Amino acid sequence: MNALFRSIVFAFMISIFTLSTPMLVAAQPNLSVVVNGNPINSDVQPVIRNDRVLVPIRAVSESLGGTVNWYSETKTAVVTKGSTVIQMTVDSKEIVGTFGRKEIDVPAKLMNDRVFLPVRAVAELFGCTVNFDDATRQVQISMPDNPGTPAPSPVNPPDSPSRGTTSSPEGLTPRLSRVYKSGAGIFSLDITGAANVTYKAFELSNPHRLVVDLSNVATDISKGNLPVTGGPVNGVRLGIRDDGGIRIVYDLAESDTGTRIKYTISQTATGISVDFDRKALRIIIDPGHGGKDTGAIGNAGVQEKDVVLSVSLKLASALKAMGIETILIRSDDTFVELEDRAELSHDKAPDLFLSIHVNSADSPEAHGTETWYRYDEYADLASVFEKDLAVGLGRTDRGIKKGNLWVLKPEEVPSILVELAFVSNGEEEALLKSQDFQNKAVSGIVKGIRDYFKLR
Ligand SMILES: [Zn+2]
Questions:
Q1: I need a labelling partner for 3 at 20 to 30 A (CA). Which of 271, 302, 395, 455 fits?
Q2: Biased-composition ranges for Pro residues (predicted)?
Q3: Ligand 1 centroid to residue 356 C-alpha, Å
Q4: Under 8 Å CB-to-CB from 305, ≥6 apart: which residues?
């Protein structure tokens, strides 16, 4: 945003009707701007174009204690001051914000790569008044002591015969006005004052859906199913959460073999858009240990690092055959730091990070299969894999366990760690070495992937 700020000069624009010719302009004193009597300092001097006084908005908005954001994609400026937000789009006479909607007589203009906003509308909505002193050619902006509320006795600026609507208490909340499909795979939410809305998006499985929770927003749209579908979206639902926020749920088409509906979400000045696309699943397989780190060693000499590498290579082949993008943390007997494994997981942002290990205990009696997770949101993921793996291997289901395992650290990545069986148990050590058992492990994990991602 800083670069944009440098490259674009914002300016207030007000109409004056007292000047008609350049000669007259030259004969008069220089234009100046004062806020509460204090002159505004700016690199850009006020200028006159088409009988209008143009004032740099950055200096003025800073003097008013507000901030300006510019969204070049939509050519929209959002001015925020306290709890009041107004949003103006270049060449649009409609101004929207926390106050609602309003028609303005002078739209925002883009001239010579500079954006000019009408000062009267902006200042009034922030409770200021604007006056043009003809004699001194001074733009006088008066800001009330209590920002955000209208001045008690406003003086109409010269371009306004009457005062417009000002902010009202019920107008302070951004409003969701429209939920619709705006393009191929693109689903949009039009929100007045969207800059003040925060959202949280997350996916749920069985069935696959995307949830977008909006905070600090109201709507007149009735809750329930909305008549919006298309492409990968089977349906859209709107709900009101207990905390008053709005929940939008996108019901997504089931995944094809090796693919999954993925999404990119973006927030602009005018709303929030979700771009859905069918993409290959990306799975990171993390064979535990390696190199100097042997992992657990059984009485018969079976080493954990060898078993998990063998299973991981078989699994990678199976997943690639399914069209899944597969990344192996190691594909040979190499030592890899735990931090580097977690970092790769974070960087690659896979749909699943799967760490494969073999268990060990002091007691030779201990046996069976375990699945570990780190964050509560992945407990269900762990349950799916634990069940499929224990059944596939035909071993005791020891259940899911929660722990602060380093490789599962990136919270945004669905991550689990499976302990296939106990190398410290004589029977299971022999099984772990066998190709048949390793193939069963691969089948169990593949079933977990199919079940979790709802692959056909
Ligand atoms: Zn291990």
A1: 271
A2: 147-160
A3: 8
A4: 287, 288, 289, 290, 291, 293, 294, 295, 333
Side by side, which strands form the sheet with 369-373? 325-328, 282-287, 352-359, 415-422, 369-373, 397-402
pLDDT tens digits, residue range 195-237? 889 999 888 877 889 999 999 899 999 999 999 988 889 999 9
Cα-to-centroid distance, 418 and ligand 1 (Å): 9
Measured in whole angstroms, the distance separating CA 120 from the mean position of its chain's CA atoms is 34
Q: Which residues on neighbouring strands pair with residue 56, listed in sequence order? A: 11
CA neighbours within 13 Å on the CB side: how many for 337? Answer: 4
User: Ligand 1 centroid vs 87 CA: distance in angstroms?
Assistant: 55
Q: Taking 90 as the threshold, does the pLDDT of residue 119 lie above it?
A: no
* Cis status of the peptide bond prior to 144, with omega within 30 of 0: no
DSSP for 260-314 reads EEEEEEEEETTEEEEEEEEEE-EEEEEE--BTTB---B-TT--BHHHHHHHHHHH
105-86-117 Cα angle (round to 5): 45
DSSP 8-state secondary structure symbol assigned to residue 18: S
95, 89 Cβ separation under 8 angstroms = no
Residue 166 CA, ligand 1 centroid: distance in Å:
65
Question: In the chain, what are the domains?
Answer: 2-162 (3.30.457.10), 180-279 (2.60.40.3500), 282-453 (3.40.630.40)
CA distance 219 to 177: 6
Rounded Cα distance between 20 and 1, Å, is 38
- 364: CA distance to ligand 1 center in Å? 17
Average pLDDT over residues 345-354: 95
